[in-house]
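Sanity check record (used in CI):
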Amino acid sequence: MSTADIAAAVTRAHRGEWARVVASLAKRFGDLDVAEEAAAEAFVAAVERWGTDGVPPNPGAWLTTTANRKAIDRIRRESKRDDKQKEALVAHDDDPPEPLGAIDDDRLRLIFTCCHPALAMETRVALTLRMVGGLTVPEIARAFLVQESAMGQRITRAKSKIKTARIPYRVPDAADLPARVSGVLAVLFLVFNEGYLASGPDTDPLRHDLTAEAIRLTRLIRVLLPDDGEVAGLLALMLLTEARRTARVSATGDLVPLDQQDRGAWDAELIAEGHGLVRERLASGVAPGRYQVLAAINAVHTSARDIRDTDWSQVVALYDHLVRLDPSPVVALNRAIAVAELDGPDVALAAVDRLETALSGYHPYHATRADLLRRLGRSQQSREAYDKAIELTDNPAEITYLTRRRDQLG
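Expected output for RNA polymerase subunit sigma-24:
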């Protein structure tokens, strides 16, 4: 196999097996540092060995076995070991499996461990994106709009706190699940968003592996918590967004915005399931949370056969409700985009400009300004805004789209 073939095989294995390998190691050794570093070493070994020996029939099993050996080697080199690690060293493959609890998926167990209430919410999300989602520190930093160094320190401190506080890698009791679920949903939402529009320069513009994994795990949580409205809302939001995936990038690699997408290419089955969940939550009579409102907004968009049929007044009304639940600048930016369709680009631009301080490093802010300025005939200012948006994004499909729009200004 060529070097490129080996690199592609390792990349596929990383996407499909990273979380499984880390979860397996965390379960056995009870140490997230050991789990992460041994998993990383196993993937490095794969690059070296697969080029000589070929890709194994079961890459996941090969990586897990190799990572376990790397972890044991590391622990043996250390002068101090806690009881959990000593027990892990003498564990045998034929040990009886532990009884299943409320969660019988190792990756979900790892998520709930990373989302322990002893950690700050933003730390829970960042740690789980790294340990379970396999995202790099730069990718996570971009998702949080913070510096890479600060994010690296945050993740390191979180792992240290878990170790120092002896937070166990265990299955939460059923009674603990509702209190722990909000952090898990936040994690899954960000994992999905990274797949929806990848932030890295060397990745596919859309990462179906991440969106599919986020949907799979959210479905598992819905089985565990069938009456939780926000779980249903997040699942509906993911399904309605994923339904548009194949229409979001053109054959030439451009990002295709919502108003230009071929709606006939949308996945009707996913849309029907998402709409069903939204209707179910509306019928419950319970006040909706953030994910349910976002799902309802997407339901309005996916109900329209043509962009001209979109009920923009309903979309703005839903955003008004969302702003009360989540008064973040990103929500305000998205509301302004809808306002542009209802009240005109001049009204929307005034709202967007008020967000400059909060969103100056956020490329969708500049892309939105560029589009509104273009519609108002302010070409030079629009070009400058496009340049800034291009500078701040690494997604290849988005860069291609923004560059084309900028160049159309003449």
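Confidence is low (pLDDT under 50) at residues 92-103. If this sentence no longer matches the regenerated tokens, the check is flagged for review.
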